[in-house]
């Protein structure tokens, strides 16, 4: 294996570890609750603390990579993430675990924000880059499902502490290899001045936005607290945009949005992930609360999805993109995912995994495995090399915002429909299945909208569109 291939393996392994962490802990939440005495409302902060730090710092982390060097930012993030994983594993009370999860999310943001930019620099040749992005996309697309399997296995066979300890050997080995394999890169540095005001506005705005979204399920969307927090977060983000238009050294150069590829791909990412991240949450509930699978069984029930994603993204995605173009592959892949979600919108209380869930997981894996590499290719294709870090941070940020929105909206919709059916006299299994059908239908609608946006905005061009720095 060449040094370049080994470097790609290290980058993708770290990316996979960070993605896994979002779902591997979810399966362990009941055990964490029993051991540390969390209430149902405070338990959510084991997930929310990580998500808020991760989503809020991605954009800043990507720009820091452009300014001071992506390798430096990557190594710093990997080190913070690994140490924070150890601290989470040895946490003795609720406060410690939530604080260390926030620190872990910050490290994950630093490490993952620059990975895609480093890959595009590592593989400047279009076909080689497309194949490398296919490998990276597999880690992004299949990581959450693999995390459910790993979380169920570790929690059931060992205990919840190992959902954090598993990161230690991976992080340590990756850190040693990254120092040796990744090429040193130098940005212009911080001497020319950094947009401290912009950094504060966007980090505060994104963190508050994600906080508002995750709390909306508790407060409801019409509650004055939700609306007030949402208004403040949007004002902060609006202030950030105005700041970027005037700043001498902007954190997010607005010129990159002149690229239809960058703007369209980020819009598609929000819609796609909102539908699919919520799907994972809803499907885990359907498998456990309606089909009565245990944690380990639920994890393995998801296995066909990452297998299908791996086959498509690793073996066929690059060939399909070269033969038909990224836009055609993306639209087709998203259409298959929307079709799979539409199929799930027919599940019943007396459903069967083999006939009602498995076909949809396979079809979704094939569609997602084709769509994700094509989407990542389009997201990076319009950014100049000097902006690769911020473009990478931007697509990761929109991915996390989509995840937060999707989970909050679909969970609220499912709970509302289930409550209505219970009030009408339906039995609990029928009411739960009815709520999940509503969520799946919304997911399918989000994917259908993503298909439309991709078809309209991501047109192929003979000459690759790049907005020059």
Automatic annotation (TrEMBL):
GO CC list: plasma membrane
Membrane protein topology class: Multi-pass membrane protein
Keywords: Cell membrane, Membrane, Transmembrane, Transmembrane helix, Transport
Main location: membrane
Transmembrane region(s): 42-61, 73-92, 98-123, 135-158, 164-183, 195-214, 226-243, 264-287, 299-317, 324-345, 357-376, 439-458
Record-linked InterPro entries: EmrB-like, MFS, MFS_dom, MFS_trans_sf
GO terms assigned for molecular function: transmembrane transporter activity
Subcellular location: Cell membrane
Residues in Major facilitator superfamily (MFS) profile domain copies: 7-462
Coiled-coil region: none
Protein name: MFS transporter
Taxonomic classification: Bacteria, Bacillati, Actinomycetota, Actinomycetes, Pseudonocardiales
